[in-house]
């Protein structure tokens, strides 16, 4: 018989705990559905079922945290003892409010992407306008102060400007 690896053991434990959670949920469902049919089973029985479910969920959470931390420690990353919880992805409050109002989160995503696209187009326009201004300013400086043409071209090269366009404009005017 082949030896059982630690990861296989962890997987089996997690699988068993998930089955326990499903069983606890089934027990709660049965108790809730038969609550008024055959007489009340009692508040204590339902409370014990919920406490058992809570324990099962806590156990699976601890196993998941332990497994995550073992992977982190295997990667030689040390974390402070107070940072031993797993950080879940953050959901924007606007999205939660959007869903609470009964709207589709896909619409929120589409609107967000459209807003980002508009913002990117605006920024692209500003960048192109600044580039045109840089080229026009360089051309006018070279035209007004020809002795500074070499310095202006050097600055343009360093600012990733197109010196060929400026040189062509200067030659055309000459």
UniProtKB/TrEMBL annotation:
GO terms for MF: transcription coregulator activity
Does Chaperone appear among the keywords? no
Record GO cellular component, one term: mediator complex
Is Amino-acid biosynthesis set as a keyword in this record?
A: no
The Gene Ontology biological process terms listed for this entry are: regulation of transcription by RNA polymerase II
Q: Which InterPro entries match?
A: Mediator_Med10 (IPR019145)
Q: Where found?
A: Nucleus
Instruction: Print the keywords alphabetically.
Output: Activator, Nucleus, Transcription, Transcription regulation
**What Pfam families does the entry give?**
Med10
The transmembrane segments are none
What family is this protein classified in? Belongs to the Mediator complex subunit 10 family.
Q: How does it assemble?
A: Component of the Mediator complex.
What this protein is reported to do is described as: Component of the Mediator complex, a coactivator involved in the regulated transcription of nearly all RNA polymerase II-dependent genes. Mediator functions as a bridge to convey information from gene-specific regulatory proteins to the basal RNA polymerase II transcription machinery. Mediator is recruited to promoters by direct interactions with regulatory proteins and serves as a scaffold for the assembly of a functional preinitiation complex with RNA polymerase II and the general transcription factors.
Q: What is this protein called?
A: Mediator of RNA polymerase II transcription subunit 10
- Which gene specifies this protein's sequence? MED10
């Amino acid at each position: 018989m082949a030896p059982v690896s630690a990861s296989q053991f962890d997987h089996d434990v997690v699988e068993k705990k998930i089955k326990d959670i499903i069983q606890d949920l089934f027990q709660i469902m049965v108790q809730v559905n038969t609550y008024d049919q055959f007489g009340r089973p009692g508040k204590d029985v339902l409370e014990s079922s919920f406490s058992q479910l809570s324990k099962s969920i806590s156990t699976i959470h601890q196993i998941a945290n332990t497994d995550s931390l073992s992977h982190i420690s295997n990667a030689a990353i040390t974390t402070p003892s107070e940072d031993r919880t797993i950080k879940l992805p953050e959901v924007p409050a606007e999205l939660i409010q959007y869903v609470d109002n009964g709207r589709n989160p896909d619409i929120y995503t589409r609107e967000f992407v459209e807003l980002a696209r508009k913002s990117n187009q605006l920024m692209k326009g500003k960048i192109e306008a600044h580039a045109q201004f840089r080229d026009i300013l360089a051309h006018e400086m070279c035209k007004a102060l020809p002795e500074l043409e070499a310095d202006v071209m050097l600055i343009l090269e360093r600012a990733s400007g197109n010196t060929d366009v400026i040189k062509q404009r200067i030659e055309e005017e000459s």
